[in-house]
């Protein structure tokens, strides 16, 4: 089993991601998102909207056990990140690993 934090960092560095609520919803709706990572301690309303859209579009949801500030730091951003969509996995194994979803 791989570490989710390391895989998030790898996918941000080597793959393609879409960061932020509006961008994630756009990626889900235009079917470019392969998976979505959400912060478990983030805005509940936003996370529920994203999970609902993922269920409709059959997109894998991965829950990061942390707050949006920690997820933002993993992404190398100086701001909070509630969610990110994985468009291309790069050299990470984020699409194939099971993180206890």
Record the SSE blueprint.
Layout: H1 4-14, E1 16-19, H2 21-29, E2 35-39, H3 44-57, E3 60-64, H4 68-74, E4 83-88
Parallel strand pairs: 2-3
Antiparallel strand pairs: 1-4, 2-4
Task: Describe, in plain words, how this protein is organized in 3D.
This protein has 101 residues and is an alpha+beta fold. The chain has a single domain, classed as 60s Ribosomal Protein L30, Chain: A (2-Layer Sandwich). It is built from four helices and four strands. The chain has helices at 4-14, 21-29, 44-57, 68-74, and strands spanning 16-19, 35-39, 60-64, 83-88. Strands 1-4-2-3 form a four-stranded mixed sheet, sandwiched between helices. Helix 2 (21-29) packs parallel to helix 3 (44-57). The protein is globular. The protein starts with a helix and ends in a 13-residue tail after the last strand. The mean pLDDT is 92.
Which terms would index this structure?
single chain, 101 residues, alpha+beta, 60s Ribosomal Protein L30, Chain: A, four-stranded mixed β-sheet
* CATH hierarchy, class: Alpha Beta
Going across the major beta sheet, what is the strand order? 1-4-2-3
Return the domain count. 1
Tell me the span between the first and last alpha carbons. 13 Å
Radius of gyration based on Cα positions: 12 Å
Tell me how many strands there are.
4
């Amino acid at each position: 089993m791989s570490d989710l934090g390391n895989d998030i960092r790898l996918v941000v560095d080597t793959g393609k991601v879409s960061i932020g609520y509006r961008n994630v919803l756009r990626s889900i709706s235009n079917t470019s998102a392969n998976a979505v990572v959400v912060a478990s301690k983030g805005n509940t309303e936003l996370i529920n909207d994203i999970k609902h859209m993922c269920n409709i579009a059959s997109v894998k949801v991965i829950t990061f056990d942390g707050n949006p500030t920690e997820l933002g730091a993993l992404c190398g951003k100086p701001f909070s990140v509630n969610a990110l969509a994985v468009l291309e996995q790069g050299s990470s194994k984020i699409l194939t690993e099971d993180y206890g979803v």
